[in-house]
TrEMBL record, chain B:
InterPro entries: AAA+_ATPase, ABC_transporter-like_ATP-bd, ABC_Transporter_VariousFunc, P-loop_NTPase. Gene3D superfamilies: P-loop containing nucleotide triphosphate hydrolases. Keywords: ATP-binding, Nucleotide-binding, Transport. Signal peptide: none annotated. It comes from the Bacteria. Residues 1-230 form the ABC transporter domain. This is ABC transporter-like protein. GO terms for molecular function: ATP binding; ATP hydrolysis activity. PANTHER family: ABC TRANSPORTER ATP-BINDING PROTEIN ALBC-RELATED. The keyword Electron transport does not apply.
Amino acid sequence: MLDERSRLCVHAVFTVAGCGGRRHGSCLRRNADGCLFLHSGRGLYSTKGAVHTVYMKYAQIDPELFLSTSDSTPMYQQIVNQITTKVMAGDWPAGQPLPSIRELASASRVSVITVKRAYAELGQAGVIVTRHGMGSFVADSPNLSDSLLQAEFTQHFDAMLACARRLGLSVDDIRQLLDDEQAHGAAEPTRGSTP
Amino acid sequence: MSTAFALSGVTKRYENFALRDIDLSMPEGQVMGLVGVNGAGKTTLLRILGGLALADTGTVEVLGHDMPAQQVAAKSDLGFATEDMRLFKTRTLRWHMDFVRSIYPGWDEVYAADLLRRFDLRAEQRLAGFSHGQRVKALLMLNFARRPKLLLLDEPTTGLDPVARDEVLEALADVLRDEARSVLFSSHNTKDIEQMADTITFVHNGTLLASRDKESFLDDWRRVICHGSWVPDKAAWPEIAAVRQNGSIVELKVRQFSAGLLERMQTQGAEIRSADPMNLEDIFVTTVRAGGAA
């Protein structure tokens, strides 16, 4: 049993005593017989009363996001952005179970409906997948961070073209700017600011 | 799905004020925010649900119990906090805690101790020495520690300093974790409601102006800035709630935003410069000023 488990990357070991008192940990649940259950991406593990240690493949993640009410970005969009960032940075690897909607809402102090909407958008964008009755997981796409970067690039590119049109720049002007940029290389940063 | 409460055709008349024809319900596990100016009817609505006021007409159901016939059963699972509730000045907070515990078997002493610590309250202190903010927090603590299925909170964050407000919102967020528990709260601070509520209900002059899920509600409204000489006639553009013009700049507050609307505006010669989401406060004020439906 342990041999098989040891092949897994064990990030977290929870003891029954240690987990019951965790403020953000709804990972353990007690059923009617007093058995403790652990929710993980791979289903339910029972402690059957005697075993007091449970192994998980994925690290228990902190469900608190840093959201701001003074940010003009809508709250659901802030959630989408932050989870996307975590996935792109590799903080949350493919297959990682996401916090439940209620758990994330409670820990980040936003309404349940806002998190629902954010998860729906993340699902549509292919960042996460939601399996009925199992919860949501980081999508298993090998090129996920590439495709997210691609989407970000396209967005900036379109914005640049729109801006160029308003300035009256022709395609040749833009081409010239690109050539200049290449000629100077990284030695001299271009004029203007980068975000 | 069971409902936390359901009001149907509820009317309540006072000498100078009437709550009229209220149809409103909330599914279990939700947080609903009530927004309205002073005297709009928010407190009357909460008092009727809490069994503290009797509706003249209509039916009231709370946690599956008919009010007022089954109010004893409803009230055992109901928490009601309003600033009007007087605590006993000569008694300590501990005395109040023991009093509430003696009535409600669901009292959770561990949670109560946790809330005392988080709200920075001293159980052995007499209420006479409490500041306004401490009294509000004490009242919320006495309600929260019972873990009631439905919490009715009348202005829970009004008059609190920013730190205390934050503590209260954190405690409110704890309630979200349990999908069987529901919260209905009113607030002048629309930011609190915008942050915590699943459903938003606008109350004005004793009637409901709107009651909708927050995300689609916020999504429908936009503040559009355009350049040019085109100024819409509001009668012909029902999607537009407010128009202001200064020189070549026109500001529109749109209540039913869509890409199609922007296109139609462009064909009228408007040059769209921005179309940004609005916050709840702005939406509420615009709705009330426009004098109609949101």
